[in-house]
Structures are given as C-alpha cells and as structure tokens.
Amino acid sequence: MLKQLIVIVGIIGVLVAESNPLKYSGQVRQRYEMVNKDFSDTTGFNNKNYLRTRFAVTYKSEDVMTFVQLQDARIFGTETSTLKDGTADALDVHQAYFKLNHLFRMPLSAKVGRFEVVYGPQRLIGSVEWHNIGRSFDGVVFNYTTKFANVDFFNYKQVEAGTIEDDDDFNVRGAYANLNFMKGHQTQAFAIQDNKRMTLGGYGKGEFGGVNYEVEFAIQNGNVSDDIKAGGMMYGINAGYKISGMTLLAGIDYISGDDSKTGEVDEAFNTLYATNHKYYGFMDYFLNLPVHTGGLGLQDIHMKLSGFKFSGHTVNVAYHMFNADKSSDTFGNELDITLVKKFADNVKFVGGYSMFMPGKLKAENGVNGNFVYLMTIVNF
C-alpha cells in the first residue's frame, strides 16, 4: 500500500510540474432554489439544492488539442443512503474531444468527440449553462477560416437507433458562418438540418452612434413528420444604450404559432437546441417551444437594465410581457431581478428573485408565481 501511494504521489508531482503540457481546471457550483410556479394559493414553495461539479484536463500544442471534462450533477438528498448509495446517477463524461489543426496544410481544423456547442446568441443552439447538467453533442465539426469568413460544418448524432439501416438515426447537420463584412459588426448566416426539418437564418450585431443593436431571424421548412410540413419563423430585435456603466435595452422576440386552418403545415417555430432560459424569463415557463405555448407562438416584449452598481453588488433587472401569436389573450408578465457579488477572484455569488403575473392563458385565479435562488460558483 505504501509503495502504491508513493507511486501515485510521484505521478501527481510529474503532472503538476510546470513543464507538463497538461492543464487542469474545474468548477463547483451550488444553487438553492425556492420555487412556487403553479399559480395556486394552497401550495407553498418547493425547495431544492443543486450541486454540479466539473473537472477538466486540457492538452494543447500547435497542431493538436485534447479536452476531457468529467461532471457530476446531483440534487441534495436524492441518494437513498448517506453510506451505501454511491451510484452517482448523473456522473458522466460531459466533454471529451480532440481537435486537429492545419489539416492538409490548409486553414482547416477538425473537432471530434463530445462537446458543448454554442452558436450565435444561443437562440437555436446553446450549452444551457443554467441547467444543472447542461447540453453536449456527440459529433464532428470541420472549421474553415479565411480573412473573409469563419465557417463551421457540423454533423451531430442525437439518436443512434442501432438498426441495420441508418434511416432511424437522428442527426443534426449544417453550417454556421461568421462573415467579415464590416469592422466592428458581427454578421452570421446559418443552415441547420435536424432530421427532416431545415432552419435557415442570419444574425447581426454592432453599434451605431452609441446604440447597440442585435437582430436575428430564421425560417423553417422541410418536414416535421411524414404528413406535416414545417413553416415556422422566428425573429429577435434588440437595441441598447450604455450610460454611466449601465446598459438600457429594449426589444422583442417573436416565435410563430400554428395556424389550425392549415392542417398540412405546422407554422409553430421550434427553437431546436436553444438556451431559452437566457431569453424568455428566468422562471422557465417557456423552455420547450412550441410545446410550452401549446403551439400558440410567443411574442416577448422586454426591457432590461444591467450593470447597476449597489453596495458592492451588480444588479440586473428584466421585465417581460408575454403575448401569444395565435390568440388575443396573454400568457402574462414576468419580473426578474438578479444580484451578482464577487467574493474572490475565483468565487462569486449570484442571487435572484422572479415573479410571474399570469394572464388568461396561464391561470384564471390571478395568483402570481414566484422563484428565489442563491448560487455560489467556485472556479479552480
């Protein structure tokens, strides 16, 4: 046993040496939540503690990069025994990939394995960092870079059916391009095929005269199923202005709903693999679109204030007005207040309070929904 311990300590000493090309990183994140979202005055808050632990190893050279990240995600008290239950149901390889650069002596790279994917502002494909597990894809990305464009060509495997033919597999394929049209402005174009549905669109971001703008749009065609065609659309428009270290922003996000009169076409836009928590209110009533709107679509008119400093805290405030695309009734309004406090260089506290004031499409009794959380993030 002593010899084994000496060997282990020796290996660790070699790994952490300055000359070693391996780099280590990690994060422990704990979040306490108090949730009351059912619009009932007879139920109280449901309290939960979430814990996410990540540890990663990175190797990087001029031509090769390798990244492996282990993750354990859990809710306090869900294991059946403090002594006997070591199942760690959500222990997984969150990311494990290699990246090869300068393929064929060209500005071409290949990334293969399991990894997080973030494109644009994450309205269609994002990592969902708020989630206790987060999203990863299995697949490959080829990147081609010139001074005019930076383009990803990707193929992700969502479902491997395991049948003799590949017709039952579910793949997500496409291209996402960053185009260098104007200095100081981002211009992106994309085509995403998930199974038999195609999503086409573009994204732009920049500044004119001190006003920041962001515009994104997308349309969907192809087939939702064998009998139903896709015909949805989405757009987001935001304008912001910075003053005294703060940013004032106003905008609208639109998700089309389904027209019941056109039975062969589904006009309800599907947000695919988006980070919807980032956009449609922190209470997460609209995570799965179009399911969470009943196919009625969504119109989110919002105002946001970020960067306000108060007693060593950074305060962010957002107010949403949620309307339906295919109904004159409303879903309701939501207020989100977030406080961020830096405790140390690698430690920060994030707390928040949200209140949802339901419209007729959400509840009839007028009881508000409430959400309170306190999160501690430690990076190393």
Give the helix/strand layout.
Layout (H helix, E strand, L loop, with lengths): L1 H14 L6 E15 L9 E15 L3 E12 L15 E10 L7 E8 L21 E9 L3 E11 L10 E10 L6 E9 L2 E12 L2 E12 L6 E2 L2 E11 L2 E10 L9 E2 L31 E13 L2 E11 L6 E15 L2 E12 L10 E11 L1
Parallel strand pairs: 12-15
Antiparallel strand pairs: 1-2, 1-20, 2-3, 3-4, 4-5, 5-6, 6-7, 7-8, 8-9, 9-10, 10-11, 11-13, 13-14, 14-16, 16-17, 17-18, 18-19, 19-20
Overview of the molecule:
The protein has one helix at 2-15; strands at residues 22-36, 46-60, 64-75, 91-100, 108-115, 137-145, 149-159, 170-179, 186-194, 197-208, 211-222, 229-230, 233-243, 246-255, 265-266, 298-310, 313-323, 330-344, 347-358, 369-379. The protein has one helix and 20 strands. It has 380 residues and is mainly β. A hairpin with a 2-residue loop joins strand 16 and strand 17 (313-323). It has a single domain (27-379), classed as Porin. It is 4% helix and 55% strand. The strands form two sheets. The chain has an 18-stranded antiparallel beta barrel. A two-stranded parallel sheet has the order 12-15.
